[in-house]
Amino acid sequence: MMSKKALRLTARDRHVLLLCSYLPHTVKQLSSLFPSVKKCSARLLLLYKAGYLHRITRSCSEARGRAEYVYSTKKIRGSFNLEHDLQINDFRVGVELAFNNTNVSPTFLYPPQIKAEHLTQHGIRPDAVLLLTHMKKDVTLLHFLEIDMGSERTSGKGCYTLSQKMEKYIGFFDSGDYQKDFDLLLNGFRVLVICQEEKRLQQILKLCRANQADFIWLSLVASLKNPLGKHWFHCDEDGPSPLVLET
Q1: CB of 32 within 8 A of CB of 97?
Q2: CB atoms within 10 A of CB 87
Q3: Of the residues 72, 104, 121, which one is the last residue of a structural domain?
Q4: pTM tops 0.85, yes or no
Q5: Nearest CA among 197, 122, 119, 205 for reference residue 162
Q6: Contact of 143 with 132, CB cutoff 8 Å
């Protein structure tokens, strides 16, 4: 191992370390910050050898292809939580690429970056926050991201359920407190739920219809590659919708 003093940190290095302090990242998820995946991999290796980063190998089955390294400023434990966290990153990367060279400016906030007192008071802890601002129209849309791994029951007693989570979001929506938290002229918000399987998506969509929660939009994990695509389901429409109509 080389010493930290032997490696001079660049502004990009500090940005990488900041992202990896929020959640673990794969080389591919960080590669957009570099000229190439190869250069990204080489720099991450140096940061690892200097003791700035920890890493583990993600297996072929989890990575759906070749094995790959996952980097974090903290020790990485648990493959279930890891897959959840990596899907959050996939969404961020997909959004940033999708809105590149458009009139829409995305702002993505990981949990440590979310400063929302009223959101916390309502007992809501989203996986991330996404603000989409149309630069020409000066309009901002607020989104809360939820990665659903299928571990929570849709309803029932004696445990935390999706139905209870939905009730909290509905209460937050109706209260208008989101206006105070984000200090923006907002007309509601959306909750974006990423499901792992079609059956689970349909179960949650049924729950949304029963509660008239039309601000909850659902899609499958495959949509992370292109979050803007026409594959979002909500109870106001029978078929899929695009995330935004105009960029």
Answers
A1: yes
A2: 19
A3: 72
A4: yes
A5: 205
A6: yes
Query: Does the residue 43 lie in any domain?
Result: yes
pLDDT-derived band at 6 (thresholds 50, 70, 90) equals: confident
> What distance in Å separates the CA atoms of residue 33 and residue 16, rounded to the nearest whole number?
8
Q: Which region, left, alpha or beta, applies to residue 109 given φ > 0 means left and ψ of -120 to 50 means alpha?
A: beta
In the chain, the number of structural domains is 2
DSSP the chain: ---GGGSPPPHHHHHHHHHHHHS-EEHHHHGGGSS-HHHHHHHHHHHHHTTS-EEEEEPHHHHTSS-EEEEESS----HHHHHHHHHHHHHHHHHHHHTTTSSEEEEEE-GGG---HHHHHTT---SEEEEEEETTTTEEEEEEEEE--S-S-SS-SSS--HHHHHHHHHHHHHHTTHHHHHTS--S--EEEEEESSHHHHHHHHHHHHHHT-TTEEEEEGGGGG-TTSS-BB-TT-SS-B-S-S--
Q: Are 126 and 170 in contact (CB under 8 A)?
A: no
Distance CA 172, CA 26 (A): 34
Q: Are residues 83 and 184 in the same domain?
A: yes
> Sorting pLDDT into bands at 50, 70 and 90, what band is 213?
very high
